[in-house]
Design goal:
20 strands
């Protein structure tokens, strides 16, 4: 089924209906909306890990709320709004330090706005604009948000809302009129007796600012803040509701979000990529998962060459009429996310908005079957994806998942703890992530006994494969809580990798500095080669001047390779080994130390997520010294 051409409302119907189409629909809906959620979350988080976790929790809670029938409405504004509600829970708990100080202070000063019909502790009552928007049909919400706030073109908005050619312009005008009328009704419903006497005068004055009624209505407006605000709101709703909606539904960061999205609106491509084209990040050129993945400006997690963002929005599927239907739909979401490698939802957060939900990154493009990096089955008792174990039953419900890969015909290695050593005999590594196990909390243990575990991040966590590796979709990564190697001195990093595509540059292993990666073991699509790249200084650009050891040729999609990157400070040399053989060298005269996270699956550029990995990774190791050529060959042989 070609989910790319379905509207959001149709995708939701497939998701809640179950069957073989539910997972592709789930993936497509997430492809459209999660990058924007992540980008907005990045405005309020201090690190890429925190941004991913904030976005993930908001995304999954929105999905669960919509499945339960407790919310309905346009997907994008609802999911973005849930970021602030999730952040409010963080601000009250141990994750307060992970938030942007400005957001934390805003939360402490007043709390998040809940754009629903009620308010609860830590939430203000929703504004009149938010309540008016909540009363609109789903399609009208989506059209207004994407045309007025995000400035998407008619073709894109039409595709995501199911509007035909030439219908979007009419639908936009109709939706704007519906919003105005909804606001008038909300205003009237909340008026006190004195205000009701001036209701028609307030509307007339807002529409025309007629001088012949100014003397009559002005004294009341001076006394009544609510009616005075309504005059301003009604005027803006008639002429330019975008900024007003952004402020009402996203009271912290909304105007900045809208301004940045509108700035990049003209650069977004058509939302329906041809078969085989990779997933795209939303929101123009979204920065994706960086140290502070500042929302909406940097490019997709798939890298600079990846198709840059696209927006989408739509209508929510109708809520179930009874408790049994709601429970069935919630169970379906949990099963779908389990099969897709998506983590289960954490604690519920207050979400009074009319927003829909969203799922895991799309993996609906066709790929040629490729053998996994490890052929052995997962060890007994190995947990599934972070936060939820994908049961055999769940897996059997999605046998045709496009990202599933057949078992290799290679002989299976011995189980860990038997004949296979936990690490090659080349000295003790500083960290060793074999990915044979992933805990329910989304943590992969360090097999080096140095207690340097890695944490999985993304809307859906990287997916453990049956062979004991991790599959990445271009928008996920694994990170440590601090540096694993001293990049000012000698070190070595290695990994077994298989790329699912080779048309974009991708980072396999890196370590964050303040603004960019201190090194990147990666694939360079422009050179069609593997690369060990070490920037000469910590600048904001991941493509700045660097010392780079390049291989003579690169891989084909689906072709496994073992990579080893070495920095030999004593020799002043950067070396790259591919499958144990020296593939390239480069001189290096000066280095700098980095204190950020050791990361698998992305780089860092301009303090933003950079060149995410679309493929499978296994056996990641780092050493605090420069390995020799013989040791690099041994490392590749034993991996």
């Amino acid at each position: 089924m070609d989910c790319v051409r379905l509207s959001d409302a149709e995708l939701l119907r497939h998701i809640w209906g179950g069957g073989e189409s539910s997972l592709p629909a789930l993936h497509e809906l997430e492809r459209r909306h999660f990058p924007a959620v992540r980008a907005f979350a990045a405005l309020g988080a201090l690190s890429p890990q925190a941004a991913d976790e904030l976005a993930y929790q908001a995304w999954q809670e929105t999905l669960r709320q919509q499945a339960a029938g407790s919310v309905s409405g346009a997907v994008r504004p609802g999911a973005l709004s849930s970021v602030l509600h999730t952040a409010s829970a963080w601000a009250r708990g141990s994750q307060r330090a992970a938030l942007n100080p400005q957001l934390g202070a805003w939360m402490e000063a007043g709390g998040a706005l809940m754009p629903g019909s009620t308010a609860s502790a830590w939430f203000h009552a929703p504004s009149l604009v938010a309540r008016a928007f909540a009363g609109l049909p789903c399609r009208s919400q989506a059209v207004l948000w994407h045309r007025a706030v995000e400035r998407d073109d008619e073709a894109l908005t039409g595709r995501l809302t199911g509007a035909g050619p030439g219908e979007v312009s009419v639908a936009t005008g109709r939706a704007q009129e519906e919003l105005y009328n909804s606001y008038v009704q909300v205003l009237l419903n909340g008026m006190q007796d004195e205000c009701r006497l001036y209701h028609r005068l307030v509307l007339a004055y807002a529409d025309a600012r007629s001088t012949n009624i100014a003397a009559e209505v002005t004294p009341h407006l001076q006394r009544c803040t609510r009616c005075s605000r309504a005059v301003g709101d009604l005027g803006r709703l008639r002429h330019d509701p975008g900024a007003l909606l952004a402020q009402a539904l996203l009271p912290w960061g909304g105007p900045e979000y809208a301004a940045r999205v509108a700035h990049h609106a003209g650069t977004r491509p058509d939302p329906a990529p041809a078969a085989g084209v990779a997933r795209n990040a939303a929101v123009g050129a979204l920065p994706a998962g960086s140290r502070t993945p500042q929302g909406l400006v940097s490019g997709s997690r798939g890298g600079r060459s990846a198709g840059r963002g696209r927006h989408a929005a739509a209508e929510a599927g109708g809520a179930g009429a009874d408790a049994r239907a709601k429970k069935r739909r919630i169970d379906l979401v949990v099963r779908c996310t389990a099969v897709a490698g998506v983590c289960a939802v954490g604690a519920a957060f207050a979400f009074g908005f009319v927003g829909d939900s969203e799922p895991r990154e799309p993996q609906s493009r066709e790929r040629a079957p490729a053998p996994p990096l490890k052929a052995s089955p997962s060890p007994s008792g190995t947990p599934g994806p972070a936060r939820v174990t994908a049961t055999a039953k769940a897996a059997s419900e999605a046998p045709d998942r496009p990202t599933s890969k057949p078992t290799s015909s290679r002989p299976a290695p011995s189980a860990p703890g038997k004949d296979r050593p936990s690490s090659p005999s080349v000295g003790d590594p500083a960290v060793e992530w074999l990915f044979d196990k992933v805990t329910a909390d989304g943590v992969t243990p360090d097999s080096s006994d140095n207690d340097k575990d890695g944490t999985l991040f993304g809307a859906s966590r990287p997916r453990p494969t049956s062979g004991g590796a991790l599959a990445f979709d271009g928008q996920q990564f694994v990170a440590s809580s601090g540096p694993m190697v001293d990049t000012s001195g000698s070190f070595t990093v290695s990994a077994q990798v298989r790329l699912d595509r080779t048309d974009i540059s991708q980072t396999v292993v890196s370590q964050d500095s303040s603004n960019a990666s201190a090194f990147m073991l990666r694939y360079d699509a422009q050179e069609s080669a593997w690369e060990m790249r070490m920037p000469k200084q910590d600048t904001g650009d991941g493509e700045s001047d660097a010392d780079s050891a390049l291989s003579g040729s690169g891989p084909e999609a689906g072709e496994p390779a073992h990579l080893t990157g070495v920095y030999d400070a004593a020799a002043g040399e950067v070396r790259l080994y591919v499958d144990g053989r020296l593939a390239g060298t480069a001189g290096r005269t000066e280095s700098f130390a980095s204190s950020g996270s050791f990361v698998v699956g992305r780089g860092l550029s301009g303090n933003a997520f950079f060149q995410g990995l679309d493929g499978t990774v296994d056996d990641v190791r780092a050493f605090g010294r420069a390995l020799s050529s013989a040791e690099a060959a041994k490392l590749a042989k034993d991996s």
